[in-house]
Design goal:
Blueprint (H helix, E strand, L loop, with lengths): L5 E19 L5 E20 L8 E8 L2 H4 L9 H13 L5 E7 L9 H17 L5 H11 L3 H6 L2 E5 L4 E4 L6 E7 L6 H11 L10 H9 L2 H7 L1 E2 L2 H7 L2 H11 L4 E4 L6 E7 L4 H18 L4 E7 L5 E2 L1
Parallel strand pairs: 1-8, 3-4
Antiparallel strand pairs: 1-2, 1-12, 2-4, 2-5, 5-6, 7-10, 7-11, 9-10
Helix pairs in contact: 2-3, 3-4, 6-9, 7-8, 10-11
Bound molecules: adenosine-5'-triphosphate.
The site of adenosine-5'-triphosphate has 23 residues, from α2 and α3.
Length: 316
């Protein structure tokens, strides 16, 4: 039997199709209804067996990526969610000969696309394989939920609804394939700051509920209805902290996007430009118009196209 000494796992970013946020709970978390949709912006996490004489499960953590400003926000120590995932798996299984962990980041950092959570999901899958733990899918999902609300979705991918604090996941019926444009901001927004602003703006938030219109649009693969159903309760808070996002959203809408909203806690803005059964030429034209309008604002660090949905963490 050959033993792998290096494992690479590719993991997608997410965009929220609905993010309904309830009141703050006693444990400090908010009740959420969070419709996650995995899109083809990927990080790759590589784990490599290190010298067995090293004393700890995780010996080195490195990161590369397209954007220096985004990389500068990635902690390269045990605050990194991927590192925490490797350490948690080692503790839980008693496995864990030393590994070096490398992140190749394409998902915007602190952009509201759950890049850190995606890396944690990928690290769980990669270390499980490298260490030969063979833990069940259910246990892996349990560890993911302990690491953070969005980590389990990194394992599952596709389109799913999260309830509780977002970690109780149910797949959703979504046969359509959609085209998205993402406007990355040169600034980061802290998730905690955005929730703090949300509490200030909406102290009387109602209990969150899944939008049946969104459910229907997804089940029918109707891109126009999907665009009209996008919603994000955190958007007013993100706009309050970073008002220029309003101009970015307006630019994409005016150029013909079917739907536009801040992704998660922002500041990345997501534009649905088509899909379902639409003519690909029509979608392509709409995408080009939206991309050009976003670039013309001068507000975006990068404008990127991507498809959704795509599968979760996958060994490459
Ligand atoms: P979410 O959408 O889940 O709220 P986000 O997409 O806004 O998250 P992340 O890219 O996950 O944000 O990063 C949030 C913060 O987490 C970063 O500013 C960084 O300090 C920290 N962090 C920890 N691990 C990672 C990682 N592997 N990649 C990126 N950031 C990480």
């Amino acid at each position: 039997m050959t033993v792998d000494t290096t494992v690479t796992v590719r993991v997608p970013a997410k965009v929220n199709l609905q993010l309904a946020v309830g009141p703050r709970r006693e444990d400090g978390f908010h009740a959420l209804v969070n419709v996650f949709h995995a899109v083809s912006l990927f990080d790759e996490v590589t784990v490599k067996a290190a010298s067995p004489r090293r004393p700890r499960a995780l010996t080195a953590l490195t990161a590369t990526g397209q954007s220096e400003s985004h990389l500068a926000r990635v902690p390269l120590d045990e605050r990194n969610l991927a590192a925490r995932a490797a350490i948690l798996l080692a503790e839980e299984t008693g496995a864990g000969h030393p590994v070096d962990l490398h992140l190749d980041k394409r998902i915007p950092v602190a952009g509201g696309m759950a890049g850190g959570s995606a890396d944690a999901a990928a690290a769980l899958v990669a270390c499980d394989l490298l260490w030969g733990c063979g833990i069940s899918r259910e246990s892996l999902l349990g560890l993911a939920a302990r690491l953070g609300s969005d980590v389990a979705f990194g394992l599952v991918g596709a389109t799913a609804v999260g309830t509780g604090r977002g970690e109780l996941l149910e797949p959703m019926t979504s046969p359509g394939r959609y085209r998205w444009v993402f406007a990355l901001s040169p600034r980061g927004l802290s998730t905690a700051d955005v929730f703090g602003e949300y509490d200030r703006l909406r102290p009387d938030a109602p209990e969150p509920r899944l939008d049946s219109g969104l459910e229907k649009a997804l089940a029918e693969g109707d891109a126009v209805a999907l665009g009209a159903s996008l919603s994000n309760d955190l958007q007013p808070a993100a706009l309050s902290l970073l008002p220029e996002l309003g101009r970015t959203l307006d630019a994409g809408r005016s150029a013909g996007a079917l739907g536009a909203q801040v992704s998660g806690s922002g500041p990345t803005c997501a534009f649905l430009v088509g899909g379902g059964g639409e003519d690909p030429a029509v979608v392509g034209e709409r995408e080009a118009a939206v991309v050009a309008a976003l670039r013309a604002t001068g507000l975006c660090e990068q404008v990127i196209g991507a498809d959704g949905d795509v599968p979760g963490a996958t060994v490459v």
